[in-house]
Amino acid sequence: MTFILAEDAAIKNHLSGMIVSDEKSANRPVKVWFGYPDIEVTTQTYPYIIIELIDVRAAKERQNSGRMYDTDNRGTVAAVQGVVYGYNMPLPYDLSYQLTSYSRHPRHDRAIMFQMQQKFPSQYGSLSVPNDLGTETAKRHMFLDGFLKRDMIEDGRRLFRNAYTVRVVSEMTPSIANSALSTVQTVKINRITTNIPPGLTPVPHLP
After folding, report:
1. Rg (CA), the chain
2. Cα distances (angstroms) measured from residue 20 to each of 24, 28, 42
3. Average pLDDT, the chain
4. Which sign, positive or negative, has the C-alpha torsion 77, 83, 87, 89?
5. Domain spans of the chain?
6. Exposed/middle/buried for 179, CB within 10 Å: 0-12, 13-18, 19+?
7. What is the pLDDT of residues 50-68, one digit of tens each?
8. In a 10 Å sphere around its CB, with 0-12 CB exposed, 13-18 middle and 19+ buried, how is residue 165 labelled?
9. What gap in Å lies between CA 57 and CA 95, rounded to an integer?
10. 143 pLDDT above the threshold of 80
11. From CA 195, how far away is CA 184, in angstroms rounded?
């Protein structure tokens, strides 16, 4: 997995496995979803957590230029005598996520808050993210930038809701950026695919 997709999967994996208890069940799982589950809202059971990517910021203050060299390809392969890998400096980014927990039971709410505090410490958090080659896992810095208690009344019942803003320090390698570019080869006009006329230059664009 690559930039953003790897962090999405890592955040969901980091949140998975949370358990709460009450007088009816000692092991009630806390489900994790991407975005608010509109289609499943009528059948969704509490408690659950929603993941939303709310910001992608180029962290230019951390940008370095030049090339990097090492003997183990950024820690993804066993070191080989005399072999040196070289690549351009990656582009630093900050990915901000909003993680919102929903529950109906006050005991579930408090249990979720306790576990979230352990998973997302204010300054010294880390997130295991698969690296670009997918053969190892790398640790990324992660910060809790904000917390809001947003309990409300819904359908005459108390809904316990907590919103966490989490920032993940990430990077995109130049090779990933280049591979995201594609060249226009055909143009659709009124839903008809037409080859580009001779003399016109295809324009690179993001898919």
Report:
1. 22
2. 11, 5, 22
3. 83
4. positive
5. 5-205
6. exposed
7. 999 999 999 999 998 888 8
8. middle
9. 7
10. yes
11. 10
Helix (H/G/I), strand (E/B), else coil: 68: strand
Query: What's the whole-model pTM score?
Result: 0.76
DSSP strands (E only) in 6-151:
19-20, 28-29, 31-34, 48-58, 67-70, 85-88, 91-103, 125-130, 137-149
End-to-end CA distance of the chain: 17
CA gap 89, 199 in Å, rounded: 37
Give the H or E element holding residue 170: strand 157-172
- pLDDT value, residue 135: 47
Residue 14 burial class via C-beta count within 10 angstroms: exposed 0-12, middle 13-18, buried 19 and up? buried
CB 167 within 8 A of CB 98: no
CATH number for the domain running over 5-205: 3.30.2000
